[in-house]
Amino acid sequence: MLVLCWALRVFENTELEFVKGDNMTAEESLFSKYPEYIHKDNSAESDYFSLIRKLLVSQRESGESATEIDALYALVEREILSSDLDPVRPVSFGTSGWRGVLGKDITLRSVAQVTRAIVEMYEALDTDPSLASLLGFTTSAAAKKAGCIVGHDNRFAGPILGNAAAGVLSEAGFKVFYAGESTTGVLSAAVMVRQCAFSVNLTPSHNPLEYGGYKFNAFDGGPAEKSITERITTNARRIIDRESGKKSSCIPPTMQIEQRENVSVFDSFSCWDTLVCDNEGRHGLNRQTLLAACSERSDLVIAIDCVHGASRLHIRRLLGARENPCVHLLRDSADVTFGGVSPEPSSKNMQGVIRFLASQDTPLKIGAVIDPDGDRIRFTDGSVEINMNQFGALAYHFLHTHKKKKGLVAKTVATSNLANEIAAGFGEEIFEPAVGFKNFKPVIGRALVLFEESDGISILGHTPEKDAYIGLILALDMVLTTGINLGDYQRLIEKEFGAYYPGRGGIAVSLQGPALRDKLSLLDRYVAGSSVEVGGREKTVLELITVDGHKMVFDDGSWIMIRPSGTEPKVRFYVESRTREGTDLLVDTAKRLLQETGVLS
Predict the structure, then answer these.
(1) pLDDT of residue 601
(2) What is the crossing angle of helices 418-426 and 388-401, to 10°?
(3) Cβ atoms of 378 and 346 closer than 8 Å
(4) Contact call for residues 144 and 120 (beta carbons, < 8 A)
(5) Alpha helices (H) along 431-485
(6) Contacts of 569 (CB under 8 A, 6+ apart)
(7) How many CB atoms sit inside 10 A of residue 372's CB?
């Protein structure tokens, strides 16, 4: 374990609890006890995370297995640090960065190689002037002087990988502002406030515990355009191919983050606070005024479930929890396993918040679940769950009506049409691009609210990246301004504009890339004028929207949309009806259509 301990001190500057002298004995026990999962001296063939998941179940049931889980993570860390293999799956940036399994795809080596790919992209500014409009700088020297932001979420080995990325960038001459553990929205704000060239965030967002990831945001603070991520992907694959089977020249010298030249550790949340304060005139939100009002209220309770993610580091500052006894945090301890749950804003993960709110007798209640990198949030008032399909529409109505702000509404094509109805009532424009926050770029600065169905939101004058924190401050303002709960506000809006019942789901598939797209192309037979059986009756396809997958809008206004995920080996489907029963039937129909294409076989 001497090599492991040395690597921890160098790359992380943190002594993790499992790095103990007796851990070697625990490891030897694992090899003999779980040969179906672990192959001694062959980490590439070992399946550490499947065993971790199994042991987490045992731990919940008996309270045991903690030592074995720690020993397994020691093996994962060793693989991350020492693997000289290429990623199992080729590097590819989807709708929100590059994601892969820790130790298999995401390693010290591969993160250094991808970071080097970014360095080479900026250095190409000196020979390719066409890159200037994409990257926001005319020379590499200017980009390096402006610097970049580097951070990570709460994932296992985040500090090690963040240090590696910072090392590659500092060695290349970039000024690096190192945030450590932080959230996507906060790092985006830091890029904007410090006017940096870009940010790197080591996170796979809401993916399960075995995943790591790499988000790259451009000079505007938002997700990079496709032409940029394609260039990074091309560069990274070339570097990986060139170094395959060899020692990588991309891995930086080993040292603690504070010892790296050109690297400054900074408080990233202060940048977020500055951005919100500076843009109050644009969006109408004043955090300090809201917190002061909160502290004087005895009729309000706020419960936030951090699901052990990076938001646990900021929420107390964000909501002034020390001064506001109404603020309560759930799952706010560090835990790279997330307690064995899928760490996403979901109905299942909302149950703890709902139970807590039920125990409180205050009339006003705000509950929320935030994902690990703090870019997604879902709400409840204890009685009604409000996902982003509804909350985005509520936010638009609130800013337009109560804050007297004007502007179009931007929502992805997979979101509910409730916002469309509200915008039409206000005489405002609607912008409806493909899934992915980067697709909102054409209307940044004009859209009053920008949101997507997967619980991401931003607003005018804020980051061009989704941010759970601005959603939370917005929800607090809604409740304090209107004096009613979010569910009551939703009912008022539905009374005026009608009720909409969206639904969504995802199905894991073995096919990917062109093979998956070929299978899904069988849906092309459903064109305008064709019919689809839904719940035993025929519905006519009134309109086919192909901006992102296949969206069939029926003659009664209901719709089904099917698209391959841009971040996981899944096919996602989205539906909406004007009745709850109709939504259930559409979900069944979407699953049947997928079965017909053969992607589920």
Answers:
(1) 63
(2) 20
(3) yes
(4) no
(5) 468-482
(6) 508, 509, 510, 512
(7) 31
Question: In the predicted model, is pLDDT for residue 62 greater than 90?
Answer: no
Given this model, what pLDDT does residue 165 score? 98
- Token pair 């405002």: residue: 428
**144-174 exposure pattern, b = at least 16 Cβ within 10 A, e = fewer:** bebbbbbbbbbbbbbbbbbbbbbbbbbbbbb
Q: What's the pLDDT at 374?
A: 98
- Residue 215: pLDDT band by 50, 70, 90 thresholds? very high
Q: Give dist(CA 189, CA 175) in Å, integer.
A: 17
Query: Backbone phi, then psi, for 543, in 5-degree steps?
Result: -150, 140
* Rounded distance between C-alpha atoms, residue 538 and residue 551, angstroms: 17
Q: Give the tens place of pLDDT for each residue, 541-571.
A: 999 999 999 999 999 999 999 998 877 778 9
Residue 547 identity (one-letter amino acid)? V
Cα 552 from Cα 532, distance rounded (Å): 9
Q: Which helix (H) or strand (E) holds 524?
A: none
Phi, psi of 373 (to 5 degrees): -100, 15
How many CA atoms lie less than 13 Å away from 276 in the CB half-sphere?
Answer: 22
> Which of 461, 468, 469, 441 lies closest to 399, judged by CA?
461
Given a contact cutoff of 8 angstroms between Cβ atoms, the answer to whether 520 and 549 are in contact is yes
Q: Which of 74, 68, 28 is nearest to 51 (CA)?
A: 68
Contact of 353 with 381, CB cutoff 8 Å: no
Place of tokens 């039937």: 585
- Given a contact cutoff of 8 angstroms between Cβ atoms, the answer to whether 222 and 95 are in contact is no
Could you tell me if 190 and 196 are in contact, meaning their C-beta atoms sit under 8 angstroms apart? yes
Sheet strand arrangement including 385-386: 327-330, 300-305, 364-370, 377-380, 385-386
DSSP β-bridge partners for residue 533: 538
Nearest by Cα to 49 from 85, 86, 7, 77: 77
Q: Tens digits of per-residue pLDDT, 75-120?
A: 999 999 999 999 999 999 877 789 999 999 999 999 999 999 999 9
Q: What are 486-516's pLDDT values in tens digits?
A: 999 999 999 999 999 999 988 888 887 788 8
Q: Do 58 and 68 contact (CB within 8 A), yes or no? A: no
Residue 549: how many CB atoms within 10 A of its CB?
21
The strand pair at 531-534 and 537-545 is best described as antiparallel
Q: Which of 558, 573, 562 is nearest to 501 (CA)?
A: 558
Residue with tokens 């459903």: 526
C-alpha–C-alpha distance, residues 179 and 177, integer Å: 6
